[in-house]
Amino acid sequence: LYRTAQALAAIRGRGFTIPDDVKHMVVPVLGHRIMLSTRTRLRGRDNSAVLREIAESVAVPVEATA
Fold this sequence. Notes:
By secondary structure, the chain is mainly α. The protein contains 4 helices and no strands. The longest helix is centred in the middle third of the chain and has 12 residues, at about 20-30. The protein is flat and about 45 Å long. The chain starts with a helix and ends in a 9-residue tail after the last helix.
């Protein structure tokens, strides 16, 4: 995930990775690695929806100011 986010940043002309790069790559990188429960699938949710929800729920780290 980290390396694909780095590659995306490079494609976009940046020498650094931002949290949005990581969030953008979550589904393509991890989508095939999770197995949803039958209950979740019956509710109409798929891997990409679950991964996007998880990625959006993670707070972006910020530097503490002293």
